[in-house]
Design a protein that fits this description.
The protein has 176 residues and is an alpha+beta fold. The protein has a domain of 116 residues: Roll (Thiol Ester Dehydrase, Chain A), CATH 3.10.129. It is 23% helix and 31% strand. It has six helices and seven strands. A five-stranded antiparallel sheet has the order 2-5-6-7-4.
Length: 176
């Protein structure tokens, strides 16, 4: 977030930022069976659709699919090496404070993610609003929506995050 001095006009920020996107960003890695297998073993998930190529081939999916929870991994940039992509869209939205809390996240899945898929994500600002909390009566929420698509442009998942930004207790006290 970009901390801005008072006066802060949430309606002006909403008008300028809602609907803005960060552009489509391709995931760094293709969907592969080995990361799926390692994840399933780590969390003790024995679903044969994720682990058993013979079983999965006979299923309605006609092959191994990824657990939905790995969609963000395959659509993301990974931890290393650091991404050279533009700064996170959410970090560019003007707010009053520079402290952030992730209030909620919802995930919806629409299509299976298959071995060999190349995922991409596009994030947009869905809303910016003021939300009073005990710590800061002028806290600002940023609602982000991310669409994940495969190489054919099929929407496979949508994530919605509500992030709350707030000021320090000293900044709140100084504001009266």
């Amino acid at each position: 977030m970009v901390k801005v001095p008072e006066p802060y006009d949430v309606e002006a920020v909403r008008k300028e930022w809602v609907g803005r996107t960060g552009g489509k960003v391709p995931g760094r890695y293709p969907v592969e069976h080995d990361p799926i297998r390692r994840h399933c073993h780590m969390v003790d998930d024995t679903n044969p659709l994720f682990l058993d190529p013979e079983f999965a081939a006979k299923s309605r999916f006609a092959g191994v699919i990824s657990p939905p929870v790995l969609t963000d991994y395959f659509a993301g940039q990974g931890a290393w090496p650091p991404s050279r992509e533009a700064p996170n869209l959410m970090q560019q939205v003007p707010t009053r404070g520079d402290r952030m809390i992730n209030l909620s996240q919802t995930l919806e899945y629409f299509a299976p993610v298959r071995i060999g898929d190349r995922l991409a994500s596009e994030t947009r600002i869905a809303d910016v609003l003021e939300k009073a909390i005990r710590l800061d009566p002028k806290a600002v929420c940023i609602v982000m929506e991310t669409h994940v698509t495969n190489q054919d442009g099929t929407l496979v998942a949508r994530t919605r995050n509500m992030l709350l930004t707030h000021r320090t207790p000293g900044e709140v006290a100084a504001d009266g």
